[in-house]
Write a structure and sequence with these properties.
The protein has six helices and three strands. By secondary structure, it is mainly alpha-helical. The longest helix has 22 residues.
Length: about 150
């Protein structure tokens, strides 16, 4: 997900990673905004664009478009301040990948004429990204942690 990952020494001497939560919120804002515009104006290409950005950002976080907008424009201009937290970026990447997969299925449905299914999947991604943006609850991160817990059993 849109994140600024920096190594830092933790208490145990192990290297910890840091995530810029402002970058995450910018990413979610772009996802919600572009998908909502695509839905309202019936433009599936916008959903396809967001899906591509999400998938690429999951596979190569440094190439994430919305993260680059934050890192190269919004943060240096002083419009937004970093909110760096020590945490594992893996749950955020997993959540973005899961959202990108759901969105890709929605886009495929839209392009084969299954509008109700396609836009419904787009709306699910909009709703979950909005919940994360507004309340800080990441459903994809929750799934990630549940899968981790299940694997340990």
């Amino acid at each position: 997900m849109a994140q600024d990952i920096l190594p830092t020494a933790g208490r145990s001497g192990l290297t910890a990673q840091r995530v810029d939560r402002t970058a995450l919120r910018v990413n979610q804002g772009f996802i919600v905004g572009l998908l909502a515009i695509g839905f309202v104006f019936g433009q599936p290409w916008l959903a396809a664009l967001v899906a591509a950005v999400m998938i690429i950002g999951t596979a190569a976080p440094a190439a994430a478009l919305f993260q680059q907008i934050y890192l190269r424009l919004l943060k240096p201009s002083g419009l937004l301040k970093a909110d760096v937290q020590i945490e594992d970026p893996a749950p955020h990447r997993f959540a973005q990948g899961l959202g990108g997969a759901v969105l890709t299925l929605g886009v495929l449905a839209l392009f084969v004429g299954q509008s109700v299914i396609g836009w419904s999947l787009v709306i699910v991604v909009i709703a979950l990204a909005t919940i994360n943006l507004a309340f800080g609850f990441c459903a994809g991160c929750f799934v990630y942690f549940q899968l981790q817990r299940f694997q340990r059993r």
